[in-house]
Amino acid sequence: MSLQNHHSLVRWMSSNRGYLHPNIELAFNVEKGFHARVIAGRSVKAGSCVARCSTTTSLSVLNALHTPPFSCRGTRFPSAFLRHQDIAIVQCFFLMEQWILQESSWWAPYLSTLPKPDDIETLCFTDQEEDLASLKGTNLESAIKKQLDVWRDEYSKGMEQLRKLEWPNAMNGKYTWGLFRWASTMFGSRSFTSQVLSNTLPADKARPMGHLDPDHEVLSNLFEDGFAVLLPLLDLLNYRPFSKVEWQAGLNEIGLQVLESFDGGQEVCNNYGPRDNEALMLGYGFAVSANPFDHYSVGFKVPPGSPLEEARRWRATQSLKANKKGKADERYRYYIFNSEHPRAKAGHCLETSIFSQDLFESISILSANIRELQSDRFRATGTILEWDTRGMTDRRQCRNLLHTLCQLRLECANRLELLRMNMSRSRNGSKPTMSQKQQYAEIYSNSQLVILETAALLCRYCILRAQTTPKEDTLIISSAAAAERIPHTSPAVVNVQHLVHRMHSIIGFRTLFSFSLAVDLLPETLALKIRNAAEAVSKALERKAQASFSQPLAVYNQLPEKIKYTFLLAALRKAYTDRSDTLPKPLKAWIRDLQSWYAFDDPFWNGPTEDFVPTLELLMEATDCLVPETFDPIMNDVWSDPQMICWAWNVQEEEGLFSDTEVSESNSNGAVCQPSTYLLCIPGVHLSNRLLD
């Protein structure tokens, strides 16, 4: 492959109604490969057509099917093969045949400018260990394996039928796996969608053939479903995000118009549309630094029998009813977006901005408690959360939103740890000089790393923010970055700073509470009674637990905090019932909500669950050891009512959540993360000091 071959291509295209702007030349360098640039001393004005390809020189499955006016140029595959094979298989075997024909092929001038089959191993990633080592922990590792498996299956199917039909090159061994992979790579990396042909006269002539000729039955849905088209000369322009170009469809040709001006020496690029680095690496073999369209794909399996599976079935039914074609749209997209992705910029709140709707909604359903799953919204829409640009439209959703962020943070942190470890191994084992493939792999891996770091940092920031009083965002971000082991120089820190600046949060400050901070919301006298009683019972429980070992140690580790919340909720319920005027207004509103969600007189909520019975027995045994003075009269009334204790336990089980992002407010430098703890969501509390009536 040389510039001479590319100049020959331009001459061939010109003789077949093709065109290259006279002020543009083809060039080559190591960094850009073959590319188009404006000749020194000249310019190209905005609105100019820079290149044009005639439909007679295009190459697609239409040629393989010999669909007038798209000619097969002498390569007529058997009808049985064309009728019973997928489009992808037919087009690849057709391109293989043209390569074997070499100078005898109509497309010989174009083929001479394509990478050779032997070059594919060097240019593109394979499933060999050396290639995959630099991609471990990324989406691309499995995507490459999956793509090659699909291609191998297509090659096997095509070869099997062509051998049965005794097609010469299938019998003599010229159709090799390597050649098929080359053909698949060419269509994957250099083709355009069939939409570029849509408004041309030849396409209009080809469409009806599917209904007129049995040999062309496959054409019936071909234009609607779409197919790949190779356009010689037009595929020489490199990709650049946000390049301002526009396709021009003439009667018999397809042109590319630039919508910006270029001076001498500037490269003229095409824009393939919003392509993330995974698609670029998989299809074209390169990655773009700071690609705004990049995202991280999250593998997601729906647990059998889960509420999410139920919601999926419901939504599939609704989609089927709404779809006129009688097909349900069951595609779900689980993505974490680059913070500069258009979808992230269009987000309506900070918490959900960089997560795809399918991902966030699915995690929210899996994070839902009984109350949330029984909501009218879930029954009507199959979703839990609803919000608008002003904030949460329903305070009942606050706990679920926070729990969803906790689960997403944990998921991102786990993937982040794996990716960091694999990137470290890859760098330690790499050669001093990296190949171009390895350089692109590093760009891609770094992009995936930053996306995951940004997501983990954003989740932790939102959770910390929900636990703190209003303070500088930079202090919370700094604390969150330290907890995630993210350097302050990381792009992720800047990304979150930008997100926080341009998006509003729908979760208020002081929404998520440790037991200590929750008790501080109460009038001082009541707070002291609850704190003393809860502390005494928790210590007695720990002593009893250590002596008995009748349950797993992990259960005991969780009990003290849960018992404290049980005391808090029972005391609040007692105070609300007897003297609600002693409670601050926000807490009165919260207890009123709890009463409506978990009715005081409902046996389901005021009776012990099967799991709680052993804990309740252990609790009673522990408190029997305490002296009567441990509780004052009010707390004795609370503790002597088993139904109240069971209700309080069940409520804290529903409304609490585990998070490893508890904060300590004692540090003057800002929020400080503490070990994993159990927290309670109390929406509607935004004051920084003790609440008063």
From TrEMBL:
It comes from the Eukaryota. GO terms for molecular function: protein-lysine N-methyltransferase activity. This is SET domain-containing protein. The lineage of its organism: Eukaryota, Fungi, Dikarya, Ascomycota, Pezizomycotina.
